[in-house]
Amino acid sequence: MGSGSAALKAFMEETLRPRFLEQRWKDKLAAGFTNSAGMSGDKLLTLQQLPGFAAQHGMIWVTLGQLPGWQTSAGSSDDENRLASFLGHMAQSNSDQGPDLAPPASDRATAERFGRRIGEAAHRWTRGEVSAAAASS
Predict the structure, then answer these.
(1) Is the pLDDT assigned to residue 102 strictly greater than 60?
(2) Cα distance between residue 23 and residue 12, in whole Å
(3) Has residue 3 got a pLDDT over 90?
(4) pTM for this prediction
(5) pLDDT at 118 over 90
(6) Beta carbons of 93 and 36 less than 8 angstroms apart
(7) Which pLDDT does position 130 carry in this prediction?
(8) Alpha-carbon span 73 to 79, nearest angstrom
(9) Which of 53, 73, 87, 133 is geometrically suited to a Cys-Cys bond with 47, CB 3.0 to 4.6 A?
(10) What are the structural domains, with CATH classification, of the chain?
(11) Stretch 11-15: mean pLDDT
(12) Neighbours of 67 (CB within 10 A)
């Protein structure tokens, strides 16, 4: 309905004490994804909510890091990042199909690539490469 679920909003509010006030999640990595039956489904609104929440906690947001697919006449719904997101992963699942068919393979491939990106960012972050690169700049 154009934003995170009621359960997500309740979780966000529950983090005020003590996590937010004690900055327990500061400098932790965060990333987000969303899925709906519609091609748009106001997914961007949902994704915009998440990095704002992460920023309030002092977290580091990891973007999708992929160019958009399905942007030319030669493109198709089989392209990765077919919904052209940058902030996080957007997927679309037909409401009359089960998890064996939805989301489609292109969205699943985008999710797998996004998961690898987050894992690689976490690996670099824990090894201190991000801090070392920032210090030398």
Answers:
(1) yes
(2) 14
(3) no
(4) 0.86
(5) yes
(6) yes
(7) 61
(8) 12
(9) 87
(10) 6-132 (3.40.50.360)
(11) 91
(12) 11
